[in-house]
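Weekly puzzle thread! Below is a chain. First person to post its structure in token form gets bragging rights.
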Amino acid sequence: MVVLIHGYAENSDSWAPLAADLMKDHTVVVPDLRGIGRSSKPAGGYDKKTQARDIAQVMDALKIEKADFVTHDIGNMVGYALAAGYPGRITKWVAIDAPLPGVGNWAAQLSNPKTWHFNFHGPDEERLVAGRERIYLDRFWDELSDDPGAIDEATREHYAALYAEPHAIHDAFEQFVAFPQDGIDNQAFLAKGKLTIPVLALGGEKSYGAGMATELEFVASDVKGGVIPHSGHWITEENPAATTKMIVEFLVK
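Winning reply:
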């Protein structure tokens, strides 16, 4: 049993190459986070602790007691909240290319010029992006990739259409609005001790790289690191073959 949790500027469809491989011998659950894609768009609850509860409830509804998890970007933050808040429900965890609010080197992350979008939210910002969702999202795919051409036109149009749906950009921005609360929650989780489950921390070669292992070692005691070659942040689009190989090898051990 494997649960895949996507990140920002995408939705669950980003996992298609990995899910296709895992489905050969696993049951795979691939939800959209609240407010994104085909999930409902509630007014609040975008802190990652609440979204972890969403995923736990999905597991309950499907009668899944425990599962391996693979997460990317914002998905890492939800994955950590679930692993820390619901002990025993995650058996192995693959965390890909994003740190966790409030712990480790998070302060340095906040001062990185490439993370200006963390503070880009509010009514005027929503007005600026309205009707220009593709322009806004192109910036993520172009600036945070090794090869922007790896995120093809059809993929860009697909995600831009999802984020152009009513209330979608507001809800997407709320993921960032919640970061201060996420940091408080993560510090409280960490105060109770590190995770003991096996963790594979993967970074794109031109993104977090080997530094992802360092980030996860702040919150987990059994961490293995790995680097996805020829990739920036968008690992399933930029190097799906290497991403799938590294994840599958870890999960089947």
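Puzzle host: Confirmed. Bonus trivia for everyone else. DSSP finds twelve helices and six strands in the chain.
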